[in-house]
Amino acid sequence: MGSTLAISDLWAMKTNPKFIFFTDFDGTITLQDSNDYMTDNIGYGPEKRKQANRDTLEGRVAFRDTFQDMMDSITLPYPECIQFLVDHIQLDPHFKEFFEWSLQNNVPVVVLSGGMEPIIEALFEALIGPDAKKMQIIGNRVRARPGKTLEEDRGWVIEFRHPESGHGHDKSVALRQYSSLPEDIRPTMFYAGDGVSDLSAAKETDLLFAKKGKDLVSYCVRENVPFTVFEDWSSILATTKDIVNGKISVQDAARQGHEAFMVGKTSLEHETKTVK
């Protein structure tokens, strides 16, 4: 598939970067997944939500459908949902340092989210401030239900960016607009994610950072998708710096990351057997 946009129309290409960092938002940039947090606390609760995530990960139900069901279980007016999240969601303590470094080194940051853009924008404004507008945010939208307003109970509904896709927001669409660029101008592409909303992005980037202990790691192991594990954005920053500075190649970073994961996995299995 070729790029559907001219190079000049691609937001992250405006500064002719050699590297672009694409990232999930919920549970990746933030410590909590805002949508899970709403579902658990003001929606139908954690047990049903965790089962829905398992169903998606194992391919039984599309992410779009489980996510729609989660959001439909939340009855608060939309502005109250946003304030609830601003009051409770925390930023990864190292993301701001990474973002400041990216601005100084011409590494555009594009947020690809399975969540809703108004929530992400409000959280960024609260957690980062005005500089957050220097990131591009691509996610789903929200609209009022027929005959209601966003300010009413049960007054809003999620509006998927790609309703025809089982992903709701198929992140591979945006990634392929960049990966299909001519080789002489195509930047190196990074992606960081943690969960089921990232499945459509996992195979579409040069180096995938998958959060330790989360569903995306399980998916990558099962599907044999190359990845490197991260615990927080300090390790992402260190690896990205080394690649940008030419100290290590993307291929070596992926190989080393996978080897480190396998060593840790083997060690954990050994410890478990020893305890038994």
TrEMBL record:
Pfam family for this entry, one: HAD
Molecular function terms, GO-annotated: phosphatase activity
SUPFAM superfamilies, sorted: HAD-like (SSF56784)
InterPro entries: HAD-like_hydrolase_phosphatase, HAD-like_sf, HAD_hydro_PyrdxlP_Pase-like, HAD_sf
Key words, A-Z: Hydrolase
This protein's name: 2,3-diketo-5-methylthio-1-phosphopentane phosphatase
Organism the protein comes from: Delitschia confertaspora ATCC 74209
